[in-house]
């Protein structure tokens, strides 16, 4: 059997996974995630394994096709064992059909198989059965059968007919069944378990009932085997307590316990139980009568039994056990009298057992002696966590022992016993349900009793749970029973669900509940009752759930119409239909086909076909009309009939003409044609087409394709043409009756290549290439043109030299420079030209290398607080117009170089914010499209400030430019950085102008004034930025102006003469 773990509270929380049905019946899918990633899916069965019925000893094969993304892993399991025997069970995967195959070699017994498909997003499972039948060779002759029958009767006479055997089986635990069968010589355990279940059902049906009228009292009584002061009474799954409604009493000898239910109402009817430990007895309370009647003072009882007589017999039995123990103690230790004049006859049964176990050292004192200072209390322990039971005595000089349910507990790995300074401790190290019970400590007359109860959610019996989780299959109209035993802290709330809806008692549903089990009975099941069955148990410490599935089998519904005719000719009628909406839980095996000719009254069975919903009837007469009746057949029976409408077998009807062929394209060696099918097919499907051609000026039509090679598609490429000739085409359709009319001829078309202007097709080709000197340069251009064009490559509008290799093909051209030089830099263009037109495509190639470093670097201080860095140009500056410079600074207070300027196209830069008292180092790098050069370093610069002699003087002065603006020529698209230095006191106001228009408020220019150094940055220089730039400094003492010209490289230069 497939085992499933206990459904604890944690497991219940994991059951947030989504369960859903598959489109394939009988497949259950579990989805782990609520929101699936895009493109991903849970496993599913596209084709599930089919049930197999086969003779014993033959090969059985199961096949399944699964889907899912990622691809699921497929595994197989069986109910009666494992699949570890590779010689008997073989799993395969057929890549061509994508089928997962399980082969069972030489089948021996009927079994149930499950197929699992799982990936990281979920799992799918389906079940199939293998039924093994006996072959003809395995039949038994009558004499052998009589011998077997005689033998089975002898075995039955030995054990099964013994009433003691059945009494022992009814009272025993499940684990002792096999032992009892072996003791009584019973061999067929499987048959015994079936009969045992029947006897238990019979016993439960014959439970004692107490009938009470409404408003009457009801009395329940029971007799115990040993006297107990307290037992647990339960009613309909709830613990009952002594109060106004219930009265709990017991006899003086504590053997008879009674439950009195006062003023019975209709709501009080149900099962009531008396529970002692793991043992219980039940009885029904049936309340009869009508409402609104006066309260009755009579008491309703069950079948009259002499309770007192049964109790007296039990007392005599206990007294006999006591006498045996007394005799054993007297024989072993003599007729010893206990101190304080108490004889052995006054001791209890457990105390006599303790004397035997302690070697006669046990004593009982009634006067002054050892007393309990602190007694035992009830302990509720959690499973697998340490529990302690502690009591404290008034004296340290004493002896005693621990008992659990009357049996002495010793020091073991399970129990830790401790005694020190009058404190006695008993500690179960890993408590489980088996440790629950009454635990006592005995030493002197005082005694305290405690019970340990484990705090946890309810747990299912593993054997019942394994059987419960298996799908239960019943036929329609039959009853389905689900039952489970369980354990747990009371009270336990029990709920049953079907497809997520809670079930309540009604005409077809009956729920039975008791302290340790629950039973669900679904009467007269219908097909609609198929679905998931769930039981939920809940107490104050948690809850658990168990799932099963109910499958109700029924005969299928009729096939679905209307039938669709796919072919109707003079010799056959082919049609199809849809499978039944509900197959009744079993796959469709066959379809029964019947036919009636219109005008006749009789129906004729013509075929019984496999479960494919289409049929081709070839036994029809031309022009006749027919009706068909279809029935679906499954293992559960045959469906009702589905009758089709009238269908007529065709006559010799030829198809109509197709549409005239249209020319899709034409070339020197091929003409591509297409056409539309005929609007009239003649009542049957089109088998193909015949195409004919004719030259212009000729009356002879010739067939393009052979008669035995029909054109299946509605297009064709005619390759049997002569370049430059003009053709027309026509086409005819062919059906089952033959060839139809030809279409109208197409338009005349020349067999020649079409004229097309050149067009470049590689739109993603780069327009700028940077190549290191010495490397190869390769430019490939793809194009379309007809007729074939002439191709010319140019460099800077001049044809390329012979050292450059040009390779041309039908649709592309390639330029190759094997080893490039700096002189190869330039703009390369390709000119593609034919009779229709021409196209040009250009790309710039720059051949360069890592730049050489700049020359020596000098530092000057023209303005206080600033340093001007001046360097000699790099030797590559004249050969590379894209070469520029980068300046880095190292402050003596820091340990890293900082870039202060980049993309400089001149050989000077002024560094601001130089702090006095610090040392500075500067580096200048040359950069181009290929890389960066080694640095040129400056000498160390230390900025010292000399403090002049303080004297009163007038520091005010009119503005004047210390460093004027320089002429600037910048490449198009690059930055331009203008700067000048001005002095004046008060601090002058600085205004920038371009062509006498103020730029201070223009956001396209970045303007700053730091300590008299005025700067302006243009991020991307364009033709619109060319012109005269001026700076005007004004204060209260005067005004000064400085101007310059900005030219953009590649544009017409501006020459300016400035007169001051």
UniProtKB/TrEMBL annotation:
Superkingdom to which the source organism belongs: Eukaryota
Domain Ig-like: 43-133, 758-848, 959-1047
Domain Fibronectin type-III: 558-654, 657-754, 853-949
One of the Pfam families matching this protein, by short name: I-set
GO BP field: sarcomere organization
Xref: InterPro entries: FN3_dom, FN3_sf, Ig-like_dom, Ig-like_dom_sf, Ig-like_fold, Ig_I-set, Ig_sub, Ig_sub2
Keywords of this entry: Disulfide bond, Immunoglobulin domain, Repeat
This protein's record includes keyword DNA repair: no
Polar residues: compositionally biased ranges: 7-16
Ranges for region Disordered: 1-23
Record GO cellular component, one term: M band
Gene3D superfamilies associated with the record: Immunoglobulins
Protein name in UniProt: Immunoglobulin-like and fibronectin type III domain-containing protein 1
Species whose genome carries this gene: Haplochromis burtoni
